Amino acid sequence: MTVIKRNPLAAFTLITFLFSWGFWLPQALFSQGYITMKNPLWGLGSFGPSIAGIIIIALVRGKEGLKGLWLRLLDWRVKLKWYVFIILFPPADNSYGLFHTSIRWRDDPGFDDYRKPGPPGPNFFSRPRAGRSA
Asked: Which of 40, 43, 57, 66 is the most exposed place for a label (fewest CB within 10 A)?
């Protein structure tokens, strides 16, 4: 406990690394063919820094630190429309990208290569431009 209070940044880094790679390593091993079981929870590794930050605040500052954190998170400083934009824009943007990609590349025989194991298939940047040879 005193080590964490003396070195909170090192503890944060270690907890973040262990939490994130605890979820990512099985997925990385699966994608390379070393293990046969896929990890459906691999996306939780992205929350490593947030989880580590909350843990470190709780250990170093206690309940008062957590209370201060939540009060700062709930202190809205911009208008509601910006929060709505931040919540709705990423899914809308992602949906547009998926729709556009499915329309643009649906007749491309290499489009399914993205879902196959092994070396990646061709992508937008590796395709020859119109009128040029490969």
From this structure: 40
Tens-place pLDDT, residues 69-92? 999 888 878 888 988 998 888 888
Residue 122, exposed/middle/buried by CB under 10 A (0-12, 13-18, 19+)? middle
Query: Locate tokens 């020859």: which residue?
Result: 128
Phi/psi of residue 118, each to 5°?
A: 110, -165
Output the pTM of the full model: 0.58
- Going 99 to 104 to 105 to 108, the CA torsion angle's sign is positive
> Residue 81 is encoded by which pair of tokens?
């429309």
Element (H, E) at 1: none
